[in-house]
Automatic annotation (TrEMBL):
Taxonomic classification: Eukaryota, Fungi, Dikarya, Ascomycota, Pezizomycotina
Record field: transmembrane: 13-35, 110-135, 163-187, 199-218, 224-248, 260-279, 299-317
UniProt name for this protein: Major facilitator superfamily (MFS) profile domain-containing protein
Database matches in SUPFAM superfamilies: MFS general substrate transporter (SSF103473)
Keywords for this protein: Membrane, Transmembrane, Transmembrane helix, Transport
Species assigned in the record: Pseudoneurospora amorphoporcata
C-alpha cells in the first residue's frame, strides 16, 4: 500500500496510532468547549443564580415608611452618649457559621458500583486482548482429526482460527459497526423499556455467555466460520456496549452531590485503569499456558470465571429510587443498607 522504505512502511503501526491520537485530541477539544462544568464552585458566573454576588452597585432594600418611623429617636437624652447603657449587652453575639456539608465518597453504595465497573473492565479488556490473538493463532491442520470425544470436551481447544491479518482487520471493522448499532439503536430502546437497574442486572448476570461461546468457533465448519464469528461479536457487543453506559448512569445516581462527582468519577476511572493494566498479562499468560496443553479456551474460561463473580456481585448494587426534593443540584439522596446516611453533615 505504501512505497517501499517510506515512513509508514518502516513503521507499520504509525498510521493507526496517528489516527487514534487525532481522534483523542478531537475528543479533548470538543469536551473542553461543549461540556458544562458540574462542580458548583467552579461553574461560570452566568450559570449561577442572580443573587449569588452582591456589590456596592446592588440596590438597597427600600424601607417601609422610613420618614414616619425613623430607626432612632433623636429626642432620647442618651442618644449619642454612653450613659445608661449596659456595656455587657452591647457586644454583638457572634452568629454560628454554617459549615459546608461533606460527603463520603467511600460509601457502600458508591463502592459497590465501582467494584462492578472494575470487574466489567477487567473481563472486557481480556476479550479485546484475546480476540486478535485467537483469530491469528495457527489452526490445527485438518489432517489431525479431533475425534468425537475431543470435540465434546470443553477442555480440548487446540490453537486458534488461523485468519490472516487482513481478515482480522475486516472482522474488527465489522465489530465496530455492530458496536455503533448497539450504542445508537439498541441501548436507548432497551433502557427505556426495561429500565436502567433491571437491565443492568440482566446484562451482568448473562455476561459470562460471551466468553464461554468463543472456544466453540474452533469446531465450526469452514463455510460457516464468518457468520459464527459475527454472531459471537454481536452477542459480545450487545452485553458489553449496553453495560458500560448503565454503570456510568448508576455511578452518577449513587453520587450524593455534584460537588463530589469529580472525585467519584476519578476513583472509578482509577480502579478501571488498574484492572485494564492487569487484564492483558493475565489473559496472555493463560492463553500461552493453555496452548501448551491444547486448551486455548483456558484464557476464555478465566474471563468467564471473572464474569461469574461480577454476576454475583451485581446484586450488591442497590438502587434507591427516592429523590431528595431539596437535594443538591437535583442529585439523589441515598442511604446505605444499614441505615447509615452517605451524607455526613458537620455540626454547625
Amino acid at each position: 500500500m505504501f512505497p517501499k522504505g517510506s515512513l509508514f512502511d518502516r513503521f507499520p503501526y504509525l498510521l493507526p496510532n496517528l489516527i487514534c491520537a487525532s481522534m483523542l485530541l478531537m475528543s479533548i477539544v470538543l469536551g473542553y468547549f461543549l461540556l458544562e462544568e458540574t462542580h458548583p464552585d467552579m461553574q461560570p458566573r452566568v450559570l449561577l443564580p442572580a443573587d449569588t454576588f452582591l456589590s456596592e452597585n446592588t440596590p438597597l432594600i427600600e424601607t417601609s415608611d422610613a420618614m414616619k418611623r425613623p430607626a432612632v429617636d433623636l429626642r432620647d437624652e442618651n442618644y449619642g452618649t454612653m450613659r445608661a447603657r449596659d456595656i455587657k449587652n452591647t457586644s454583638p453575639v457572634p452568629k454560628a457559621i454554617d459549615k459546608q456539608p461533606t460527603y463520603n465518597v467511600f460509601s457502600k453504595k458508591i463502592m459497590a458500583v465501582i467494584v462492578s465497573l472494575s470487574i466489567f473492565t477487567y473481563h472486557s479488556m481480556t476479550f479485546d486482548h484475546l480476540l486478535p490473538i485467537f483469530f491469528e493463532d495457527d489452526k490445527v491442520p485438518s489432517s489431525q482429526p479431533f475425534g468425537i470425544f475431543k470435540v465434546l470436551s470443553p477442555f480440548y481447544s487446540p490453537g486458534g482460527l488461523g485468519l490472516s491479518l487482513q481478515s482480522v482487520g475486516m472482522v474488527m471493522a465489522v465489530q465496530g459497526a455492530i458496536a455503533l448499532f448497539m450504542q445508537a439503536v439498541v441501548f436507548p430502546v432497551m433502557a427505556e423499556r426495561v429500565g436502567v437497574y433491571r437491565l443492568f442486572i440482566l446484562i451482568t448476570v448473562f455476561h459470562p455467555i460471551v466468553y464461554s461461546i468463543m472456544p466453540s468457533l474452533l469446531f465450526v465448519p469452514e463455510g460457516l466460520l464468518y457468520p459464527a464469528i459475527y454472531f459471537c461479536l454481536a452477542v459480545r457487543n450487545f452485553f458489553s456496549i449496553l453495560l458500560y453506559p448503565l454503570l456510568l448512569i448508576l455511578i452518577k445516581e449513587a453520587t450524593p452531590s455534584t460537588s463530589v462527582l469529580g472525585k467519584v468519577n476519578g476513583l472509578a476511572a482509577s480502579a478501571g485503569a488498574a484492572c485494564r493494566m492487569v487484564a492483558p498479562p493475565v489473559a496472555g499468560y493463560l492463553y500461552s499456558l493453555g496452548r501448551k496443553m491444547d486448551c486455548t479456551a483456558l484464557a476464555w474460561y478465566g474471563s468467564t470465571f471473572v464474569a461469574i463473580i461480577g454476576a454475583i456481585q451485581c446484586f450488591q448494587v442497590k438502587r434507591d429510587r427516592s429523590r431528595d426534593a431539596g437535594g443538591d443540584d437535583g442529585m439523589s439522596q441515598y442511604s446505605d443498607s444499614d441505615g447509615e446516611a452517605t451524607l455526613v453533615a458537620e455540626a454547625a
